[in-house]
Amino acid sequence: MRSNPAEFQFISPGNLAGALDLLHREPGAWQPVAGGTEIMVQYSAGRLRARSLLNLWDIPELKIIDESTDSLRIGGGCTFTQIRDHPGIREHFPLLATAAAWTGGIANQNRATIAGNIVNASPAADSPPALLAYEAELDLISAVGTRRVPYKDFHLGYKKTVLQPNELLLAIHLPKRFCGWFRYIQKTGARNAQAISKVCIACVGKLHANRVEAVNIGIGAVAPTPLRLLRTEKVLLGSSLTPKIISEAVQTLGTEISPIEDIRSSVTYRRQVAANLLEDLLSSFSVWEQEG
Amino acid sequence: MTTDTFSLQINGELRQIEAYPMERLLDVLRERCGLTGTKEGCGEGECGACNVLINGELVNSCLVPIAQAEGAEIVTIEGVAHGEELHPAQKAFLQCGGAQCGMCTPGMIVATAHLLNKYPQPTIEQIREGLNGNLCRCTGYMRIFEAVQKAALLGSAP
Prior knowledge:
Chain A is an alpha+beta fold and about 290 residues long. Chain A folds into three domains: about 5-55, Uridine Diphospho-n-acetylenolpyruvylglucosamine Reductase, domain 2, CATH 3.30.43; about 60-175, Uridine Diphospho-n-acetylenolpyruvylglucosamine Reductase, domain 3; about 180-285, CO dehydrogenase flavoprotein, C-terminal domain (Enolase-like, domain 1, 2-Layer Sandwich), CATH 3.30.390.50. Helices cover about 30% and strands about 25% of the residues of chain A. Chain A has eleven helices and 14 strands. Chain A has a five-stranded antiparallel beta sheet. In chain A, strands 11-12-13-14 form a four-stranded antiparallel beta sheet, with helices on both faces. In chain A, strands 1-3-2 form a three-stranded parallel beta sheet, with no helix packed on it. In chain A, a hairpin with a 3-residue loop joins β4 and β5. In chain A, α9 (about 230-235) runs antiparallel to α10. The radius of gyration of chain A is 20 Å and the shape is globular. Chain B folds into two domains: about 5-80, Beta-grasp domain (Ubiquitin-like (UB roll)), CATH 3.10.20.30; about 90-155, Orthogonal Bundle (DNA polymerase, domain 1). Chain B contains five helices and five strands. Chain B has helices at about 25-30, 90-95, 105-120, 125-130, 140-155, and strands at about 5-10, 15-20, 50-55, 55-60, 75. In chain B, a hairpin with a 2-residue loop joins β3 (about 50-55) and β4. The interface of A and B includes residues 7, 35, 45 and 108 of A.
């Protein structure tokens, strides 16, 4: 059943200070809405519980991408179209540009924001594996101040995050130190376009003298939250990517993930595909040669 | 809750619309403006039948509350043609049989117009990506892709 718009309050402060002030005075009372690609789906289906909504779409402070020599800062309100088209992101963080291009169709990319993708906290979201691989940090802002949180510590459990009811995700910081590294991203879904992931994985890494000098692997849709595969990385660090080590890494992956059975896939499928993707990733990594 | 007055330019015409701020742009267009060319398919941003342009950007109008379209320029399927002169996408869909039941066609045409604005001579990959948010349950897409290629040719003709 479609929602009745007469039952909803929708306030547009038009600037960040106004939005934060409202969240500070009545924490938890207001549901923020950015591009609406998640909230409006629930609304259309009559499943949206919140009745008081806060419009973030027209807040200019959230829509800026800044670049310095050693980092890049993406405003939370930036759309996936902005992200996939940005020259600095394409050059330094191509996995994120690719993930943005995989998120929904063009019409959704024109509206969906990166902060929405993160705070909605779906384990199957497209951008988190790349953000985990790139060691993203988040600025969370409230009327009383801003705090910086490593993205890998943001998710606490299924749909639970460290974001407080009076806070907004202001910006995502990415350190520019992965240029020339090995990179890999893959996603499986019901079809190539616009499908929600059954499994998605992203990795950056470096070899030195044929051994793994650095490796960051993010994976989605196989646990209650997007996951950094820290134990699997530990198996790989310092090792040569021999068939034996690859098989050990795949086994460790199996102990790190905890996929569920749902409308999109089964536990068996997700386990098998996650293992296959890691194997494919590591076999590309083993033959990688540093650019330049 | 009470209604507000929103100012939008729809297909070149400035309109003042009385609506609840959470009314979907799709419903405002169809029910308050009588522009029923824009269709509702899935109502959840998957099918593209409700595609319109907001300030030149392709959107699913089922996912846009009217308050987020305040002050914007909207183009619907009714505004794609120039008067009696059809848009190249409309001509090409007619010539190539790019429509059967017609439910997806307004969205397909608006998405094609958006694609050709961005890439006047799109590659087949750009066409497939540009229309990947538009579902058609009749044609099997091949005639639609042919129509988009034809539209690019028509659009570039002097």
